[in-house]
Amino acid sequence: MDERQLSQAEILESIREGGHKGFQYLKNKMSAKIRQHVRKNSGSSVDADDLFQDAAISLYLNIKEGKFQPQNESSLEAYFMRICVFQWKSKLRKTKRLGEVELKEFDKSDDSGENDDLMLYDQKMDLMLAHFNQMGSPCKEVLEKFYFHKLSLDEIASEFEWTYGYARKVNYKCKKRLQKKIESDDSYKELF
Questions:
Q1: Structural contact between residues 124 and 191, judged by C-beta atoms closer than 8 angstroms
Q2: pLDDT (average), residues 127-149
Q3: Rounded CA separation 138/144 (Å)
Q4: CA separation for the pair 190, 88 (Å, rounded)
Q5: What is the DSSP string of 84-111?
Q6: Of 61, 89, 110, 116, most Cβ neighbours within 10 A?
Q7: Helix (H/G/I), strand (E/B), else coil: 18
């Protein structure tokens, strides 16, 4: 693996092109901070890995859509960390508000080395992005607006000219459809 420092421009270019190099570099540099934040805030290392994946999708979309404009050489890392912090707070808020009971997965990575963790993470990221990118309309748009752009269901309903209840139903069904696609993939069974 290439251990040299990447410039912010190189990371951005890699992400824009859909390459793994930029995300891998961010993972190597930021995973300890993200895990520390999640663990300090009622989460596990599995939650931290999931958060990184969700935040990576948000970052990718924001870069592709031109919503991220670097201000200095550390802008990207700070921006990515803000996405992670915001998404984790949002998840905790929703979990508490909705009274969700989440099933905790066994953290297989606790006994393995850091390189194994990185490889496993890359495989999970590839799987998730592949299925997300295959989502059709309106699912992809609804999930993107809700999870990545943090629009409320009221705002989504307004944009699509739907009722709030219908927007909520579509969001739920699309999320479940994506989850089902990922979980039915043979790669998922190998990774978990």
A1: yes
A2: 82
A3: 10
A4: 27
A5: HHHHHHHHHHHHHHHT--PPPPP-GGGG
A6: 61
A7: coil
Cis omega before residue 70 (within 30°)? Answer: no
Q: 151, 191, 189, 188: which is closest to 171 by C-alpha? A: 151
Could you give the count of Cα atoms lying within 13 Å of 73 in the half-sphere of its Cβ? Answer: 3
Gap between the Cα atoms of 183 and 179, Å rounded:
6
Closest listed residue to residue 4, CA positions, set 31, 24, 32, 33: 24
Taking the whole predicted model, whether its pTM rises above 0.85 is answered as: no
Nearest to 124 by CA among 172, 69, 188: 188
Q: Which pLDDT band holds residue 105 (cuts at 50, 70, 90)?
A: very low
* pLDDT score recorded for residue 126: 72
Q: Which amino acid is at 156?
A: I
Cα separation of 151 and 145, whole Å?
6
Distance CA 138, CA 155 (A): 15
With contact defined as beta carbons under 8 Å apart, do 54 and 132 qualify? Answer: no
